[in-house]
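Recall the central idea of this unit: under ordinary conditions, the amino acid sequence of a chain determines the structure it adopts. In this exercise we apply that idea directly, starting from the sequence alone.
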Amino acid sequence: MGFAVLHIQKPKGNDARTTAHIERTVQPSNADPDRQHLNKEFISFPEGVENRTQAIQYRIDHAGITRKIRENQVRALQVMLSGTHENMLHIQASGKLDEWCKDNIEWLQDTFGKDNLVSAMLHMDEKTPHIHATVVPVVTGERRKSKAEEQKEGKKYKKKPKNTVRLCADDIMTRDNLTLFQDSYAERMEKYGLDRGNKGSEARHISTPQFYRELHAQNQELKEEIAYKEEQIDEVNHSIRDLYDRKDEAREKFLNMDMYVKQKEKDIPKIEAHIEKLRQEYEPLKTQEELNTIHKYFPLMKERLRIAELCERIGLAFESIKALLHGKTLTSTVIKLFSPEHNRYFEVKDAQFKVEKVAENPNKLKLSLNGENILDWFKKKFEEVKLAVDNRFQPKYDIERGQSRGVKM
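Accordingly, the structure predicted from this sequence is:
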């Protein structure tokens, strides 16, 4: 019996790269482009939603969340579902892959909520069939608090409604929940010959480079051990020829050695299955070499990503950012913009936004506000606010009395 593979993680950084990998807008090096047409998305997007990233934001916007979402808050969980390589190929060959996919989708919806499952893509263009699912961690109820927080809140504040809708990955990714997920998923996959991994395992996730280094070292040790045993078998064969009179003793030794080597050879498929399982869990979304190549041949791509991130941080909507990156000029009568550098909002009237190349360096882009670099505009507005505050609290001199009039305390 093979293993059921369930891997859940909270992604870091820009989610657009994950969408590019899952939806194959960027071709991974370990995927076969001739089999890409076999990939399949199981979740239908709402009207007007074109991809996985937009589907995540659509769910957040329509979930009824009233609490402000922090910039660094986890907006979606990445869930990878598969099984041991040989078992998945057997499921496919026996015509049960569609049923396996259906059971996986039902388990995801039962576990995380049907509305929270915004994408589930089957990948058939890699070595082992697997599903990449995306779950928006929308939960209902009060957040988990420490005892100190509960005591403090109980004395001074009224309790908040228990049916509050929140975005909270930590409430889902608790230690107990992760164990329950593995248990319930293994139960659903048992009919396909996929068993649960060891409970209570002390194994911990390691980095991808470290994983492959250790994997290479294990393979080398195994090859060296097999080669050594083969040399021993050759020595036994020579002993048999040289010591024919002691053939029974030599034969027993040979059989023991032969049995040992055959056992090691049987262990190789198990090790390969374990390697494939780990490879699925640590599958890199994009190598640094690929990123360097993109930045080398498309220098403006990195700049466009930087401008898009800046637009998001100052508070521009997705469609507005998209239009700006397509070279359009956007106008607004009154808008409040957030300055990450100064951690405050500034209001501007009759605003005109445009993405332009920097005159001194055509490989650099800037976001201009009314013809001025928006970063310079933020600094100017901050200086104006600072000057206004300083003037407000500066003592005034009373000429008639010849005294300084300060702020009364």
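The chain is about 45% helix and 20% strand.
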